[in-house]
């Protein structure tokens, strides 16, 4: 369903490739290069590059049937039925082949039609893509050809809003500076624009006649699936120019804001990066399905046992004394009394075909159908999970995990963007050892309230500014007042650092009111906005300069525009955790500004100045405990000579072909040292709406929530407090690497020693905590436990030797917070619980750094609507807000679990009951394997007479209403404990199936021994079996009704309909002579049996007796051992049925002040970046996958510079 | 603070929040998608359980009584004769006797225990005879029985499909093993007529057995299975065959032989002349002659009546005991203290 769903998504976009975007494993690069001669088809000919036409279909006309059938028969159940069908064409079989062929072909037909339809859609898509026109340079002219005829080395022209037909080398653009803007929504769902910049050397090849002269040679890597890397060189006239991802335009992206560009084709068709990514993610199977397999296996063993008993019986029975069976010499092997062993073996097969109905063939199809409707109609259309601000409904991307949602025990949540809003506001700062900013965060307030301290609110002054990204008030800094502080020079450096050291793009009018900043992360935008408000207004960026309008610098009120020359940008990535800019002042001063995580900055500070460093450290801790995100700012003055020598190394590294990223990092390291600390910033990250109450509800439901975040420990703990994950009543275990002893060892600089030391510390701590937790468990005081651990310690704790301890400890804790963890560790923690504790896990996150964890958990949930799509693309379900988890789990998940359990157990029961009646009959036929029922009865039993009601139950059954499910979250525990699908439950069903089959068979046959009507006539075999079958159909259908908690009119319709369908069928069937069945056993049978009173009396008696057992059981169970849901039902039995309609229609009209605010914010032009959290949460997934493979792949965002999509009318519509 | 925000957001010229959004993806409300279909939610309260039991017992006991009475009104004489009809000196080798050409007639007296109103049905009952054996059941050709032109359609009749190259009509084991004991009755030397018409289901006579299909080549083989058929009578009139060919469901079965259409008085002695031809001795099968009247329900079968009475009685007993339990140990409906998390709040 995930597949088809994304197909439909892409259909609406009329773009082919988004379906194929998957974050797969990084394929190890094939050795060697590819050499492309641009604009020279003859030279490229010998290499035989692949064409540009693509095919994403699974089948073609010829292969559809064989391949489609092959896929179907990879399912064991289908294969089994195929074998049975083949077996039933042999004389061994007691049943006509139709008995098994009809249900099998119905099931196959449904599946194949679905496959064919999906593939046909794909074909249509491919065709329209392959034939879309593209302009190619031919004979000094642009000529339009379809995409599919494009060749490697061709020079193409792509116009504005057009899609790139292949992976192109960007040569020239109509924009000045050789830049163009691309939208990558089809690759990663990001709607913001990315800048690509052509090599200066190629800027001129824009017109056809110029481009014709272009004869370059591209040496580049072989096609691979890494979207964010590209290494290669362009050789023009013996000059070798290094190429980077910056010059590559990927297929699937589109051109924006640029009249047209000219590019050379590098990779075509299936070799393009986006197509190389087109691998299907291994689909997740639900735990329930795996248990189902066990149940099916059990059924197989029951089947085998039954066949064995029957076969042995037949061997014993067969004897020539039954002369009327004609067992003379020369009788076929199956009945040859001289060879009883062969008789036994052959009868085994006979019985196998006869009892094949014990395996419910339509089970999988029914479940698939039910789950599909549950997803498409319930989850996707639930108004309660619709988020009005972002206009996002919930989205189920896979349909096979619905019931898993009802059994989740552990939730792993990302913090930023998931628990918090990722609405970053500059809130406080510390400059030169002084704290500025008078605001009080909600977390501080909450903490104070918990401790019973009254917080003194500082009244807001006139200077207070609250705008997007900036919520700061301190008269000491605003309006140039900083000049009067005791350290104005530090303040100046601070503000300049904010204004210069970033990769933000300004947009809109160059006035402080109207400008908007487009940044890679909201933190960055907030920092630049802060600089603006402090009087350092960054308003223009060119490739080499940054223009800042500075106020109050020389004297109060004076304004001057200063242009800083940007020499180098040392980009941010998650290993570096810092970003530096080297700039030259107009007066020639050469400065490196650096901002980054405190850990990396403090390591690189110049010695001395310990007072400032220590007080800043204190401030950082204070900010952290207020739930603020912090960054440290530092600078370093450079001398010209030093810079020049360094810059040579930098350029060298930049143009290296191999390990460029690594080399760049190493070179950066050379200059980013001996920094001078300026101060630090504190940014507030607001909690999402309804998070604390949602978390409280979920924990009442028995779900344990772990927070895995890249943030600092203090921030994480405080967010955990704010979300009521941790409270003061809990015993907290903190395993932290940021201790003095560890720092001391680290400062010695021996990595081996450090590792050993930390490992020992972690080991001891784990042991101690484990003991303490044991003690506190035994004290019965019921004190809840919480564990906080940071990434570094986690690294050691996840070591196989310690993992067991960590798992034991963390399972005892009701909440766990892991901070400063990498994406890889998030995944490791998730799979530790998943595999180690065998619990059902759910991961929820919004950013690319959560992808690994989302894929590692049983159920992955992406937060949609706010940021990019990376997490959503990897997820199984996407919701707009964390709080919708309540609905998704407690309502949809729980119901789905209940329903699927009911459907599965019922399927098991009805097939067992039916087959057992057949089994009992075998004992009375001399074990000959004679069928009790007509072939058609047997074949239609599963697909017609009992098919629909169970689907209705799978869709409509609910024990308690949605609001009660949320009011009593404890009900969810039944799912966690798997109350409804344990062996005991199955055994009860099996017991009653046994009982009912005995009643059904014996009661019906017992009444057939004597004359059955007034005229003394007798029933034959087929009369008895038709009567028995009628009773079976009635009984199993009513049994389903008894299992229902709520009965809608669809229940009535389907159950009555099924019974009626049987009668209609038998009336028609017994009225006609079937031409293919040479024995007209059923002819007139129904008229005969319905002409007797026996029929009606039996029809009343047998179902009642058969169901009496279940009824007594249900009555007793409810009376003495009621399930929780039953109590709730009773509690609220008199509640009026409230429709949520009236309530729902009010949504959107009445907003709280807070909602109003977030709505207003959502209406603002927003930065649409998915890389949440500047400092620590970054797209590390690429390297995560790479490191899993043992390949080194540095992280690299698309581009540092991002741009809003506001001005483009096309993207505007998307909003 | 909030007013400030509102004004600043207004200042950016964003759309009016109260105005309907153009591309709203808000799902439409429908009872189906919101899972709020009207439904009745039956709760199996003790009252319901008790009343259900009471209701069943109130319905079942009268039906049980009526069926039992009907069954008890039926007078049935069952006479087992497979051993009695063999001369005592030959009982050592029953199979030899039945396969010999000796005279198989056997005259027995039966006393009527109770007055039997006509029609009195005459049945034969066989035991340990697997008419439902797979090999046996399928060894017939319904098309051949129905249609004169299809007399060669004997492929399913193995091993009795043809004899000497020409097809057997009716073919197959079922027909071949046709029961061939005959009974004739007399009271005080007055013969008692046995009506052998209309002993088969009408639909069989009319549709399954052809009016123009005559027996052919039947029982001509070396091994004789059972009765022979008069080749001048069409199959649709051969009611013994029709009855026989409606194969029985269980290895013990009765088949209708004929009707006696006079009343029999109590203590009357009937002379039965049995022609004991059929071989059930090979497989130790019993043979019984049954004379029975019928009620509205059919023959003498206490099963239904007893079953109904038992279930009705059981339900009555259950209703009573549930009531007692309900009075002794009531459970308040919807008592929150029963909730699992209230019973052990620690949740372990």
Automatic annotation (TrEMBL), chain A:
Region entry Disordered, spans: 1-24
Its EC number(s): 7.6.2.1
Main localisation: membrane
Location(s) in or outside the cell: Endomembrane system; Membrane
Gene Ontology annotations of biological process type: Golgi vesicle budding; phospholipid translocation
Positions that bind Mg(2+): 414, 416, 846, 850
Entry membrane topology: Multi-pass membrane protein
Biased composition (Polar residues): 1-20
Pfam families: Cation_ATPase, PhoLip_ATPase_C, PhoLip_ATPase_N
Cofactor: Mg(2+)
Residue ranges of the TM segments: 295-318, 341-365, 903-921, 941-960, 981-1004, 1024-1041, 1053-1073, 1093-1113
Active site: 414 (4-aspartylphosphate intermediate)
Residues reported to bind ATP: 414-416, 524, 572, 595, 629, 709-711, 820, 826, 849-850
Keyword annotations from UniProtKB, A to Z: ATP-binding, Magnesium, Membrane, Metal-binding, Nucleotide-binding, Translocase, Transmembrane, Transmembrane helix, Transport
Domain P-type ATPase N-terminal, residue spans: 36-100
Gene3D superfamilies: Calcium-transporting ATPase, cytoplasmic domain N, Calcium-transporting ATPase, cytoplasmic transduction domain A, HAD superfamily/HAD-like
Domain P-type ATPase C-terminal: 872-1122
A GO molecular function held by the record: flippase activity
Reactions performed catalytically: ATP + H2O + phospholipidSide 1 = ADP + phosphate + phospholipidSide 2
NCBIfam families: ATPase-Plipid, ATPase_P-type
Entry's family note: Belongs to the cation transport ATPase (P-type) (TC 3.A.3) family. Type IV subfamily.
Name the record gives this protein: Phospholipid-transporting ATPase
Organismal lineage: Eukaryota, Viridiplantae, Streptophyta, Embryophyta, Tracheophyta
TrEMBL record, chain B:
Ranges where the record places region Disordered: 1-31, 140-165
Domain of life: Eukaryota
GO cellular component annotations of the record: endoplasmic reticulum; Golgi apparatus; plasma membrane
Basic residues: bias regions: 20-29
Disulfide bond in keyword set: no
InterPro entries registered for this protein in UniProt: CDC50/LEM3_fam
Regions crossing the membrane: 48-70, 306-328
Basic and acidic residues compositional bias, start-end: 140-153
Bilayer disposition of the protein: Multi-pass membrane protein
Location(s) in or outside the cell: Membrane
Sorted UniProt keywords: Membrane, Transmembrane, Transmembrane helix
Keyword Membrane: yes
Family: Belongs to the CDC50/LEM3 family.
Protein name, per record: ALA-interacting subunit
Organism from which the protein derives: Kingdonia uniflora
């Amino acid at each position: 369903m995930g597949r088809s769903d994304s197909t439909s998504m892409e259909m609406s976009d009329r773009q082919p490739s988004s379906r194929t975007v998957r974050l797969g494993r990084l394929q190890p690069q094939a050795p060697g290069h590819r050499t492309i001669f641009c604009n020279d088809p003859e030279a490229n000919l010998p290499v035989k590059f692949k064409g540009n036409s693509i095919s994403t279909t699974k089948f073609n006309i010829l292969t559809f049937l064989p391949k489609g059938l092959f896929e179907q028969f990879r399912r064991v159940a289908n294969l089994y039925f195929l074998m049975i069908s083949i077996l039933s064409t042999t004389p061994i079989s007691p049943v006509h082949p139709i008995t098994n062929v009809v249900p099998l072909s119905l099931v196959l037909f449904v599946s194949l039609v679905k496959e064919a339809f999906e593939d046909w859609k794909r074909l249509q898509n491919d065709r329209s893509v392959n034939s879309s026109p593209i302009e190619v340079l031919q004979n000094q002219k642009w000529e339009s050809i379809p995409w599919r005829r494009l060749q490697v080395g061709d020079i193409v022209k792509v116009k504005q809003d057009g899609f790139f037909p292949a992976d192109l080398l960007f040569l020239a653009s109509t924009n000045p500076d050789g830049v163009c803007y691309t939208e990558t929504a089809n690759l990663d769902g990001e709607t913001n624009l990315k800048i690509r910049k052509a090599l200066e050397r190629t800027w001129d090849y824009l017109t056809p006649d110029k481009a014709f002269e272009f004869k370059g040679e591209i040496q580049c890597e072989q096609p691979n699936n890494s979207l964010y890397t590209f290494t290669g060189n362009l050789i023009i006239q013996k000059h070798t120019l290094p190429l980077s991802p910056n010059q590559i335009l990927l297929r699937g992206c589109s051109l924006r804001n640029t009249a047209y560009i000219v590019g050379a084709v590098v990779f075509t068709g299936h070799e393009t990066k986006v197509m190389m990514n087109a691998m299907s993610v291994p689909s997740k199977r639900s735990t329930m399905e795996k248990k189902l397999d066990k149940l099916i296996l059990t059924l197989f063993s029951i089947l085998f046992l039954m066949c064995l008993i029957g076969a042995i019986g037949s061997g014993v029975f067969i004897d020539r004394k039954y002369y009327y069976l004609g067992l003379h010499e020369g009788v076929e092997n199956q009945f040859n009394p001289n060879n009883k062993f062969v008789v036994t073996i052959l009868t085994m097969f006979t019985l196998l075909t006869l009892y094949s109905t014990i395996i419910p063939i339509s089970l999988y199809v029914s479940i698939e159908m039910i789950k599909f409707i549950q997803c498409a109609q319930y989850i996707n259309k639930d108004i309660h999970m619709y988020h009005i601000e972002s206009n996002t409904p919930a989205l189920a991307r896979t349909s096979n995990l619905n019931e898993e949602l009802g059994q989740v025990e552990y939730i792993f949540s990302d913090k930023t963007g998931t628990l918090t809003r990722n609405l970053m506001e500059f809130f406080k700062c510390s400059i030169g050892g002084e704290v500025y900013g008078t605001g009080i965060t909600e977390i501080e307030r909450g903490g104070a309230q918990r401790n019973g301290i009254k917080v003194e609110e500082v009244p807001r002054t006139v200077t207070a500014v609250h705008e997007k990204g900036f919520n700061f008030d301190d008269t000491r800094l605003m309006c140039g007042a900083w000049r009067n502080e005791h350290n104005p020079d530090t303040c100046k450096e601070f503000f300049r650092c904010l204004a210069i050291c970033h990769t933000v793009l300004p947009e809109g009018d160059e006035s402080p009111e109207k400008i908007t900043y487009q940044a890679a992360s909201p933190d960055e935008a907030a920092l630049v906005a802060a600089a603006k408000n402090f009087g350092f207004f960054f308003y223009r960026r060119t490739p080499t300069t940054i223009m800042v309008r500075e106020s109050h610098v020389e004297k109060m009120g004076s304004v001057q525009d200063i242009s800083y020359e940007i020499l180098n940008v040392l980009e941010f990535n998650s290993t570096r955790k810092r970003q530096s800019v080297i700039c030259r002042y107009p007066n020639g001063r050469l400065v490196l500004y650096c901002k980054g995580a405190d850990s990396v900055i403090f390591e690189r500070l110049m010695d001395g100045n310990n007072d400032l460093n220590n007080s800043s450290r204190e401030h950082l801790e204070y900010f952290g405990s207020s739930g603020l995100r912090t960054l440290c700012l530092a600078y370093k003055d450079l001398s010209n000579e030093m810079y020049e020598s360094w810059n040579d190394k930098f350029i060298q590294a930049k143009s290296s072909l191999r390990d460029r990223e690594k080399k760049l990092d190493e070179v950066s390291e050379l200059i980013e040292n001996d920094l001078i600390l300026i101060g630090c910033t504190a940014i507030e990250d607001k909690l999402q709406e309804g998070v604390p109450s949602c978390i409280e509800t979920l924990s009442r439901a028995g779900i344990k929530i772990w927070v895995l975040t890249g943030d600092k420990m203090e921030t994480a703990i405080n967010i955990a407090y704010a979300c009521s994950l941790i409270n003061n009543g809990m015993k907290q275990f903190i395993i932290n690497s940021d201790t003095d002893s560890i720092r001391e060892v680290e400062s010695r600089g021996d990595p081996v020693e450090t590792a050993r030391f930390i490992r020992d510390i972690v080991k001891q701590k784990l042991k101690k905590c484990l003991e303490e937790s044991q003690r506190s468990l035994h004290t019965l005081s019921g004190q809840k436990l919480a564990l906080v651990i940071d990434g570094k310690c986690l690294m050691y704790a996840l070591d196989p030797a310690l993992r067991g301890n960590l798992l034991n400890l963390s399972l005892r804790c009701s909440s766990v917070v892991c901070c400063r963890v990498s994406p890889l560790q998030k995944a490791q923690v998730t799979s530790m619980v998943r595999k180690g504790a065998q619990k059902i896990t759910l991961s929820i996150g919004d950013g690319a750094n959560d992808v690994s964890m989302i894929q590692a958990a049983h159920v992955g949930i992406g937060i949609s609507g706010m940021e990019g799509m990376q997490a959503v693309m990897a997820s199984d379900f996407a919701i707009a807000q964390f709080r919708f988890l309540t609905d998704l789990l407690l309502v949809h998940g729980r119901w789905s679990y209940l329903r699927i359990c009911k459907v599965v157990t019922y399927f098991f029961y009805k097939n067992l009951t039916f087959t057992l009646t057949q089994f009992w009959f075998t004992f009375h036929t001399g074990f000959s394997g004679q069928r009790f029922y007509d072939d058609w009865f047997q074949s239609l039993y599963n697909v017609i007479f009992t098919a629909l009601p169970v689907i209705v139950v799978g869709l409509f059954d609910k024990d308690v209403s949605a609001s009660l499910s949320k009011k009593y979250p404890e009900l969810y525990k039944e799912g966690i404990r798997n109350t409804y699908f344990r062996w005991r439950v199955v055994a009860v069903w099996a017991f009653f199936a046994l009982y009912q089959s005995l009643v059904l068979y014996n009661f019906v046959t017992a009444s057939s021994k004597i004359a059955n009507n007034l005229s003394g006539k007798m029933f034959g075999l087929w009369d008895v079996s038709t009567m028995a079958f009628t009773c079976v159909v009635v009984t199993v259908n009513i049994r389903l009704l008894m299992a229902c908690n709520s009965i809608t009119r669809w229940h009535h319709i389907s159950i009555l309909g099924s019974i009626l369908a049987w009668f209609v069928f038998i009336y028609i069937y017994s009225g006609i002579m079937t031409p293919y069945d040479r024995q007209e056993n059923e002819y007139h049978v129904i008229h005969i049996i319905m002409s007797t009173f026996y029929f009606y009396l039996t029809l009343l008696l047998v179902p009642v007796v058969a169901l009496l057992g279940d009824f007594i059981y249900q009555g007793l169970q409810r009376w003495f051992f009621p399930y929780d849901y039953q109590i709730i039902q009773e509690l609220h039995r008199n509640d009026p049925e409230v429709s949520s309609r009236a309530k729902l229609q009010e949504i959107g009209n009445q907003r709280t002040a807070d909602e109003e605010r977030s709505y207003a914010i959502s209406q603002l032009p927003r930065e649409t970046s998915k890389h949440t959290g500047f400092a620590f949460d970054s797209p590390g997934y690429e390297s995560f996958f790479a490191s899993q493979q043992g390949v080194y792949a540095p992280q690299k965002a698309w581009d540092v510079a991002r741009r809003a999509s506001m001005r483009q009318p096309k993207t505007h519509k998307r909003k | 603070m909030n007013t400030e925000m509102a004004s600043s957001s207004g200042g950016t010229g964003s759309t009016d929040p109260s105005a309907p959004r153009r591309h709203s993806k808000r799902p439409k409300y429908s009872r189906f998608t919101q899972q709020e279909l009207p439904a009745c939610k039956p709760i199996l309260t003790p009252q319901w359980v008790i009343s259900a039991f009471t209701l069943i017992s109130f319905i079942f006991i009268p039906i049980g009584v009526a069926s039992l009475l009907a069954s008890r009104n039926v007078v049935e004489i069952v006479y087992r004769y497979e051993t009695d009809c063999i001369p005592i000196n030959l009982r050592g080798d029953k199979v030899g006797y039945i396969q010999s050409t000796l005279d198989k007639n056997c005259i027995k007296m039966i006393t009527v225990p109770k007055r039997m109103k006509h029609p009195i049905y005459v049945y034969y009952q066989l035991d340990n005879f697997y008419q439902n054996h797979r090999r046996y059941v399928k060894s017939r050709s319904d098309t051949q029985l129905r249609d004169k032109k299809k007399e060669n359609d004997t492929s399913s009749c193995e091993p009795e499909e043809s004899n000497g190259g020409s097809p057997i009509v009716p073919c197959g084991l079922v027909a071949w093993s046709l029961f061939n004991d005959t009974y004739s009755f007399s009271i005080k030397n007055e013969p008692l007529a046995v009506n052998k018409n209309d002993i088969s289901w009408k639909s069989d006579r009319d549709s399954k057995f052809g009016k123009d299909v005559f027996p052919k080549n039947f029982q001509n083989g070396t091994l004789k299975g059972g009765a022979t058929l008069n080749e001048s009578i069409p199959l649709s009139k051969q009611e013994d065959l029709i009855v026989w060919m409606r194969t029985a469901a269980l290895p013990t079965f009765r088949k209708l032989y004929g009707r006696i259409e006079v009343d029999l008085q109590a203590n009357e002695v009937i002379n039965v002349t049995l022609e004991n031809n059929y071989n059930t001795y090979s497989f130790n099968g019993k043979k019984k002659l049954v004379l029975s009247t019928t009620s509205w329900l059919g023959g003498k079968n206490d099963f239904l009546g007893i079953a109904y009475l038992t279930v009705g009685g059981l339900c009555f007993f259950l209703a009573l005991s549930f009531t007692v339990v309900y009075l002794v140990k009531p459970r308040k409906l919807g008592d929150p203290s029963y909730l699992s998390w209230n019973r052990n709040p620690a949740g372990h």
